[in-house]
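Lab notebook, bench 4. We co-purified these components, and the gel suggests they stay together. Before we commit to crystallization screens, I want a quick structural picture of the whole thing.
Request: model the full complex, all chains together.
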Amino acid sequence: MTTLTWLGHAAFRLDTPAGHRVYIDPWLNGNPSCPPSELEPERADAVLVTHGHDDHLGDAAEIAQAFACPLIAQVELRGLLAEKVGEDMSQALNKGGGKDLLDMRVVLTHANHSSSYNGSYAGESCGYVIELAGGPTLYVAGDTNVFSDMQLIGRIYLPDVAILPIGDHFTMGPREAAVAAELIGAPRVVASHYATFPLLTGTPDALRELLPTGVELLAPAPGETLEL
Ligand SMILES: [Zn+2]
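Here is the predicted assembly.
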């Protein structure tokens, strides 16, 4: 069984078919949408980070330290995190590059966004494809606008589930997310990066009206777990 739990904003906990626990962009402490019960992880086997902004990097280094697990990130950001989690080029990917990890293959994808860490250049913002052995393939868009190369991600990796930002202002909103869903072609979309602050005005209801026929929108409440 594969389950995905939304921890508010762009943070997710993925529990894989083999029972491994993966945190994606785990901004927990300071995240106004993170349920209190999720603030202190019990265990973690890997952490995936899309870019260096605080609302994504969040507690990633602390989780990786606490559980001595890999922290995967784009190469420049991973280099900057070496002071906290040690240098390990096997955990530093770049766009188009993949890696076998636990019962997954993870691939870094393009995203149209910026990235920085403590005010420094931190490479480029990315997304992930996560291919689970004996489970679905996820596409985590990260922070991005819509871009036509999403079609290539759909063609190459055939994701079953696409996690898309919908909040507007810092990322795409529902109008672009609907076209992103069409380009990616995944039958299920999970809404992310919305409702955290008043600036993020995009809603699942607005997206639902615009989605291509046959695409199911999943909008769990913070702390709610989806079976994928
Ligand atoms: Zn963000």
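Residues 174-184 form the longest helix (11 residues). Worth comparing against the SEC data before the next meeting. The chain has seven helices and 16 strands.
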